[in-house]
Structure to design on (332 residues):
């Protein structure tokens, strides 16, 4: 059986170009004992992929040159040498950018696609939603009546963060690129307001909608937006450092200039990594399923066609902000 794959062959400096990738076809491997063969249905397209391409220390090892590009995905078990999985099971795993993946059973999780559309398990019911859930509830710790601001508000993580903060009774302000995304965040996701960071003065516009200051800022983007928020926080504010997409393709990192605001406001800024919460994933997924069924949480995602060969273009589209909700690539 032929297996289309994308390999990482060159580490990019700045924005990845076509020279980073090799598109090949090889023969799909066979599963050994306690392994399964998965046919990939959808891949999760994540900003973190850019970091995985760098040869630098992080929370996870870099992708080796010449290896299949790392990607989370969902698909169907088509051969099983595991007593735990049977042919036809739907699963999620780090399958890589390829049509077929052989993985040990301990690296694979079953998903129940009967009540929810499969791509939701890469978004709200997958890593993005779990990041949002633990990041906002445990680290942001929003209290009813507080003002919560979230950047990347129309994206996979940000859209869930804001909706959970609304469920918790907060005033929620999004930041997103462009009028259409801001309209979506307010009209479809129920945020109280959304500021287009590409238009006008972000600080002035945020001050207008946050007259009582900001109690929680959930940061997905870093850079100038983080610096602006540091000037608007209240005493005892919490800043959740979830990501910094504005910096991932930068050749010189821009650190926060206004960090002394943390001192003045006795505020805290804390980084989070979703994987630290893996033991509590089932509890979070159950809660989010309830919110989806109750109509309180919109599990939004955007499916792009193109298969394995379409991966580089879809990754570019993520950094260009062409997605609303979780961006997934259809493989099968
Ligand atoms: N810590 C963790 O465990 C963890 C886990 C998952 C994700 N993350 C992080 O969470 C953040 C959001 O990830 P996601 O998967 O939800 O992606 P996403 O928000 O669905 O997509 C990325 C969005 O970033 C925005 N963007 C791109 N360049 C930007 C720039 N220069 N300045 C401001 N915004 C920019 C674009 O939206 P606009 O059109 O609005 O600009 C784009 O749609 C990322 O930083 C990611 O690394 C962290």
């Amino acid at each position: 059986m032929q297996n289309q794959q994308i390999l990482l062959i060159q580490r990019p400096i700045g924005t990845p170009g076509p020279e980073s990738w090799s598109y090949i076809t090889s023969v799909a491997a066979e599963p050994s004992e306690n392994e399964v063969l998965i046919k990939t249905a959808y891949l999760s397209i994540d900003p973190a992929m850019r970091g995985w391409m760098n040869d630098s220390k992080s929370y996870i090892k870099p992708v080796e040159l010449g290896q299949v590009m790392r990607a989370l995905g969902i698909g169907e078990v088509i051969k099983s040498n595991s007593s735990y999985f049977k042919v036809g099971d739907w699963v999620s795993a780090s399958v890589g950018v390829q049509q077929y993946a052989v993985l040990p059973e301990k690296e694979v999780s079953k998903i129940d696609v009967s009540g929810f559309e499969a791509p939701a398990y890469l978004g709200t019911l997958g890593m993005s939603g779990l990041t949002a859930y633990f990041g906002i509830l445990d680290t942001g710790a929003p209290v009813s009546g507080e003002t919560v601001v979230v950047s990347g508000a129309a994206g996979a993580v940000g859209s869930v963060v804001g909706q959970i903060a609304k469920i918790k009774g907060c005033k929620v302000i999004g930041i997103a690129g462009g009028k259409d995304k801001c309209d979506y965040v307010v009209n479809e996701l129920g945020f109280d307001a959304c500021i287009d960071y590409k238009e006008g003065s972000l600080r002035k516009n945020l001050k207008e909608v946050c007259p009582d200051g900001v109690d929680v800022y959930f940061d997905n983007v870093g850079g100038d937006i983080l610096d602006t928020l540091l000037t608007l926080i209240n005493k005892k504010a919490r800043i959740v450092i979830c990501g910094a997409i504005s910096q991932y393709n930068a050749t010189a990192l821009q650190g926060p200039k206004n960090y002394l605001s943390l001192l003045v406001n006795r505020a805290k800024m804390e980084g989070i990594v979703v994987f630290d919460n893996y033991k509590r994933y089932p509890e979070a997924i159950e809660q989010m399923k309830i919110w989806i069924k109750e109509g309180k949480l919109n599990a939004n995602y955007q499916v792009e066609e193109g298969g394995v060969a379409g991966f580089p273009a879809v990754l570019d589209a993520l950094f260009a902000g062409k997605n609303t909700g979780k961006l997934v690539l259809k493989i099968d």
